[in-house]
Design brief:
The complex is a heterotrimer of chains A (about 260), B (about 270) and C (about 170).
Chain A (H helix, E strand, L loop, with lengths): L7 E10 L2 E11 L4 E5 L6 H9 L6 E6 L2 E2 L5 H8 L2 E4 L11 H5 L1 H5 L5 H14 L16 H13 L5 E5 L7 H18 L2 E6 L2 H7 L2 E6 L2 E7 L9 H8 L11
Parallel strand pairs in A: 3-8, 3-9, 6-7, 7-8
Antiparallel strand pairs in A: 1-2, 1-4, 4-5, 9-10
Helix pairs in contact in A: 5-6, 6-7, 7-8
Chain B lengths: L1 H42 L5 H12 L3 H24 L7 H39 L2 H7 L4 H38 L5 H11 L2 H27 L4 H35 L1
Helix pairs in contact in B: 1-6, 2-6, 3-4, 3-6, 4-6, 4-8, 4-9, 6-8, 8-9
Chain C lengths: L6 H25 L8 E7 L10 E4 L2 E12 L4 E8 L10 E6 L6 E6 L12 E2 L1 E3 L4 H9 L7 H6 L16
The chains are: A alpha/beta (about 260), B mainly alpha (about 270), C alpha/beta (about 170).
Chain lengths: ~260, ~270, ~170
């Protein structure tokens, strides 16, 4: 670890479900302005890692530090304030289906920040433009959009308030390779434009190498490898090798 | 080995009883905590007025057809039955009074509430359950908006405000149903029927029914929100939440109806 | 879910509201009048109204010709005043007799009118002066079953019952 205070750090975080430890003393940190990608197989605790950092799940043990301050067990009010510095793109985009696209993008502005609707709409359309969605899309409902467009709208919603930290939960899952590449490009553009710290989880290696400065591999609730994105394909770590080469045989055994 | 097996079989029913009792207690506790959080969210700012309006229209206005239809047929059937029953000891003439009393005190609020349990409680559970399943509720929290204030509070308020109004409509239409049968089929004098009803009814008959309705409205909205909010397991979980919302609202409506009626009866004495 | 998208439900909701409002308006407007269109109203005073209630039928020779619209007490005379709304096609002679007749042991009562012989008809708002009030059937039965003084049933019926039970006394004997 460098001497600078990391933007976000997990320290000895443990989370159990029905007695099984999904996160087992996880230690991980991201430096300010860097993009960290967490890779790993299904059920290895990637989503839980993000959810504990967001305060959507409370770990049984350990600390999660934002700018050096522990955020585990914050009150609802303090958590709400904290969220104004955070943007999240959920796996299925998680757009509100009863609201139009622009109302989704401007949700935080209207409902939490008290921005007048007219101004909020302008800022939403601006954010939609950033993710290359035409203003005509603004008045449609999420159910009328394709999966890729929903992801873009979700990205616009995550970046509209210029957050310090961005989380991406499986940003390319369920998309065709071309759309996935476009989304990856948009994500890295936006992260660079805002200068935000980014934490992503994915099992898509192409995605990981496009959007990540650093890559960490999660296995059995612990980080078993961590290094610059370029080293992912050259490391001799047997776990990473098996994951990258996509072999069924190796140190990672599947329960299936 | 056989003894251990036998011992296990003996212990099992007790274990099952204990476990289900604990589960029931935990359930009551979690509904209670949920209700308190919901009420606090409904009664303290910030309020999401556009959400409240949306729910008032969805819960109140769009329930009018089904509530009206139920009320008119129930009023008509009730009139026929009371006429038949009254006829067994030559008391057909008190039919308008009994119909009015039965509808305002009991059937108006209970039937309107049951219709809402089927229509609104299920819809709330399905909508919030789907939002839970697709991470929309998590997303809302990350957008610095409390789902209790945005989703639960407006629905609870709309339920408590709208069911009494729907019940007032059900009361009127129910009496009208009885009146229709009485005047068209049983040859009652229309004006005498109406006048008997109005002379006989006391304000408390109607008001006690409306108080019941407010409680039922809270129950219906609360059960929908609770089961939807705690839905888990994808589409099947949403389906389960919907069923639980309807069944638990119906049971709670009947139980609280009995308790409230008992309370009102004692309070009146 | 907006009003415009669901026009059918919206229309149904409006219809239900209109029905309820219509019936309520009708009820409140006729509630104070208590007459079918065209009915005329007459009154009759009784010493004992018994279980006569508004809505009770008014019959002539067993055929329904109207209904009791109101039963009130006349404070000065302590007589029960019944307002009767009568079918306009039925003209009643001025000297007709109104009698409260029980529908059964436990049931309500209705008013049976025995037409008189007068050539003049009762005018709307008129009063039937010959009346017979309700008979307390339980009082009668009681006095037959347990006659005071041990006479025949004839004697029991004609002699007044024990003062300890004044309620059993018919208001108007016949």
């Amino acid at each position: 670890m460098t001497d600078a205070v990391p933007k976000l750090a997990w320290k000895g975080v443990t989370k159990r479900f029905d007695g099984r430890a999904v996160l087992d003393g996880l230690d991980l940190s991201v430096a300010p302005g860097k993009s960290l990608v967490i890779i790993g197989g299904s059920g290895q605790g990637k989503s839980v890692t993000i959810k504990t950092a967001l305060g959507l799940m409370r770990p049984e043990a350990g600390k999660i530090e934002l700018d050096g301050k522990n955020v585990v067990g914050l009150s609802e009010g303090a958590r709400r304030k904290l969220f104004s510095r955070i943007g999240v793109l959920f796996q299925g985009a998680a757009l509100f289906d009863s609201l139009t696209v622009w109302e989704n993008v401007a949700f935080r502005l209207i409902n939490a920040d008290g921005v007048p609707r007219k101004e909020a709409r302008e800022r939403a359309i601006e954010a939609l433009d950033q993710v290359r969605l035409a203003p005509a899309v603004a008045d449609r409902f999420p159910s009328e959009l394709s999966g890729g467009m929903q992801k873009r709208a979700g990205l616009a919603r995550a970046v509209v308030a210029r957050p310090e930290i961005l989380f991406f939960d499986e940003p390319t899952t369920g998309l065709d390779p071309i759309t996935a590449a476009a989304i990856n490009q948009l994500i890295s553009d936006q992260v660079r434009r805002l200068g935000s710290t980014a934490v992503s989880i994915t099992h898509d290696l192409a995605s990981a190498q496009t959007i990540g400065d650093e890559i960490a591999m999660l296995h059995d609730g612990k980080i078993i490898w961590r290094g610059p994105a370029a080293e992912l394909r050259t490391t001799d770590n047997p776990y990473v090798r098996q994951f990258v080469e996509g072999r069924a045989e190796g140190p990672i055994s599947h329960a299936v | 080995m056989a003894e251990a097996e036998a011992a296990r079989r003996v212990a099992n029913p007790l274990q099952v009883l204990g476990r289900s009792t604990l589960a029931a207690v935990r359930m009551v506790g979690s509904v209670g905590v949920f209700a308190v959080r919901g009420v606090v969210a409904a009664l303290t700012p910030p309020w999401f007025l556009s959400q409240l309006w949306r729910q008032i229209v969805a819960i109140g206005f769009f329930s009018l057809p089904v509530v009206g239809l139920t009320a008119i047929f129930t009023g008509a059937a009730l009139a026929l039955n009371i006429f038949t029953g009254g006829g067994r000891f030559n008391a057909e003439q008190v039919m308008p009074q009994i119909v009015a009393l039965g509808i305002t005190r009991e059937l108006g609020p209970v039937l309107a509430a049951l219709m809402l349990a089927g229509r609104v409680s299920a819809a709330i559970a399905a909508e919030i359950g789907a939002m839970r399943a697709t991470e929309q509720i998590d997303a809302m929290r990350t957008l610095s908006t409390d789902p209790f204030r945005y989703l639960v509070g407006p629905r609870l308020l709309a339920g408590v405000l709208m069911l009494p109004l729907l019940t007032a409509v059900a009361d009127t239409i129910g009496v009208a149903g009885g009146w229709l049968v009485a005047t068209r089929v049983l040859e009652f004098n229309p004006t005498v029927y109406v006048r008997n009803t109005l002379d006989f009814l006391q304000a408390w008959d109607v008001v006690s029914g409306l108080i019941k309705a407010a409680v039922f409205g809270f129950i219906v909205a609360l059960m929908g929100c609770y089961h939807g909010y705690n839905a888990s397991g994808g589409a099947r979980g949403v389906g389960r939440a919907t069923t639980h919302a309807v069944v638990s609202s119906a049971i709670l409506i009947f139980a609280s109806d009995y308790l409230l009626t008992t309370f009102f009866t004692h309070a009146a004495q | 879910m907006t009003l415009r998208e669901q026009w059918a439900e919206t229309a149904m909701g409006v219809v239900v509201l209109a029905l309820a409002a219509g019936f309520l308006t009708y009820s409140l407007s006729v509630g104070g009048v208590a007459m079918k269109r065209g009915d005329y109203e007459i009154s009759a005073k009784f010493g004992e109204a018994g279980s006569l209630a508004p809505g009770a039928a008014v019959t002539v020779a067993g055929v329904k010709v109207g209904a009791v619209s109101q039963v009130t007490l006349e404070p000065k005379t302590y007589l029960a005043v019944a307002k009767l709304s009568i079918d306009p096609t039925v003209k009643l002679p001025a000297d007709s007799t109104a009698k409260i007749t029980s529908d059964g042991l436990l049931g309500g009562a209705h008013i049976a009118i025995a037409p008189g012989a007068s050539l003049d008809d009762l005018k709307p708002g008129g009063e039937i002066e010959n009346t017979q009030g309700a008979v307390d059937i339980f009082g009668l039965i009681g006095s037959v079953i347990r006659p005071q003084g041990g006479g025949s049933s004839d004697a029991a019926a004609s002699s007044p019952p024990a003062p300890a039970n004044p309620a059993t006394q018919p208001a108007e004997s016949y």
